[in-house]
Amino acid sequence: MVKEAEQITDDVAELVASAHRVAVLTGAGISAESGVPTFREAQTGLWERFSAEDLATVEAFENDPALVWTWYRWRQSLIQAVEPNPGHSALADWQAQLRARQGELSIVTQNVDDLHERAGAEVLGHLHGSIFTHRCVECAEPAELPAPQYNGFEPPSDSEQPPACLACAHGVLRPNVVWFGEMLPAEAFEDASAAIRSADLVLVVGTSGIVQPAASLPLLAMERRTPLVEVNPEPTELTEVMDYSLRGPSGTLLAQMVQASR
Ligand code: BV8
C-alpha cells in the first residue's frame, strides 16, 4: 500500500542514506521548474490547436513538415534559454557523492532536453531521443545545424520548412526524437532495464506514467522488491505500485533527499 507524504519522511530518508545503487527515471516534470512545459500542458502559438501527442508523430511531420519542424526548433530554443533547476542539480550532486563511495546513481530520462547534463550529471539513456541532433528522413545521415534563432519565450508567428539533406539531396531533416509509434533506442531501453533491476532504490520523478514502454520500466523493480519512490505533485499511473509517493515539486524534494544521502 503506497504511503503518501508531502516531504521526506524518516523511512524515506533511511532508504536514501543506505542506498548504494540508485536508478532514477525522470519525465517532463523534472524540467517544469526550469520553465519547460510538460506534455500535459496546452500548446501555444501556431500549435495551440494541437496536443503534443498529435504533433510528435511521423504522420504529423509528413502532413505538415514546416509546422512540426518549427515546433521542435522553437522548443530547442526554449530549452537553450532556460537553466537546470535544483532538481537536476540534486541528482547530479547525489550521483557524484555515490561515485565517490564506489556506488552509482543511474539517470534514465524520457526528456529530450539536456538539462540533466547541463547540471553536471551523466545520463545513462535518453529513452525518447534528443531534440538537439538531427538526421535525414531518407538516408538517416546525421546533420549538424546552427542553433535555432527563435525567442524561446515567444512562439513564432510563422513556420519554416525543414532543411534539405545535403548528403542525399532527396530527404529533409527531422529531429532525433522518438515519435509516437516509433521504437525506442534498444540500447537505452536495455541499459535502463539493467540499471533498475540491479538498483537498491528506484526513484520515479516528474512523469505521469502514461507513455509506454518507458512507464513500465519501474515495474522491473518489483522483481526483487526494490523500494520504489515517486516524486510528483500529482498522483500518476504508477502511484499505486510505489512504496512511497512524495507529493511535491522535484526541485524541493530531491534537494531534501540529497541532504539525507550525505
Ligand atoms: C512504441 C519525444 C511501439 C517526442 C515522446 C498506437 C500506435 C503506436 C503506439 C501506441 C499506440 N497507442 C499507444 C501506443 C504506445 C505509445 C504510448 O504510450 N501512447 C500513450 C499516449 C498511451 N508509445 C509509443 O508510441 C512509443 N513507441 O510504443 O512503439 C512499436 C512497436 C513495434 C514497432 C514499432 C513501434 C514511443 C513513445 C515516445 C513518444 N515520444 N517524446 C517529443 O518530445 O516531442 S513521449 C513524450 O511524452 C515525452 O518524452 C514524455 O515521455 C511523454 C510525456 O510523459 P511525461 O514525461 O510523464 O510528461 P507528462 O507531461 O505526461 O507528465 C509530466 C508530469 O510531471 C506530471 O505527472 C506532472 O504532475 C509532473 N510535474 C509537473 N511539475 C512537476 C512535476 N513533477 C515533479 N516536479 C514538478 N515541479
Structure, described:
The chain is α/β, with parallel strands linked by helices and 262 residues long. It has two domains: 1-35 and 84-128 and 184-262, 3-Layer(aba) Sandwich (Rossmann fold); 37-81 and 129-177, SIR2/SIRT2 'Small Domain', CATH 3.30.1600. It has helices at 10-18, 29-32, 52-55, 58-63, 65-81, 86-100, 115-118, 186-197, 250-261; strands at 3-5, 21-26, 104-109, 125-126, 129-136, 142-143, 173-177, 201-205, 228-231, 244-246. The protein has a seven-stranded parallel sheet with strand order 1-10-9-8-2-3-4, sandwiched between helices. Strands 6-5-7 form a three-stranded antiparallel sheet. Helix 1 (10-18) crosses helix 9. It is elongated. The protein starts with a strand and ends with a helix. The mean pLDDT is 96. Bound molecules: ligand BV8. Residues 27-30, 32-33, 38-40, 53, 56, 110, 112, 128, 177-183, 206-208, 210-212, 214, 231-234, 236, 249-250 line the site of ligand BV8.
